[in-house]
Design goal:
Length: 64
């Protein structure tokens, strides 16, 4: 696990940062869209909590 302890506050913050379409999709009238949105939000939160941070990807690319 990376990035600190798992707390309700941290999970809430991650949900807030999830893709906008997925957050909006949670209230969609069709069950299929809601299910897709739930999965997307869950994958986003899971990835943020458990995927190792790639140090190279996190570095800014130099302009030269």
């Amino acid at each position: 696990m990376t990035g600190g302890a798992i707390t309700p506050e941290r999970i809430a913050s991650l949900i807030e940062d999830a893709p906008a379409w997925a957050l909006i999709g949670l209230t969609a009238p069709r069950e299929g869209l809601r299910a897709d949105a739930r999965l997307e939000v869950a994958q986003f939160v899971y990835g943020a909590l458990y995927q190792p941070v790639d140090a190279e990807a996190a570095q800014m690319v130099l302009p030269w």
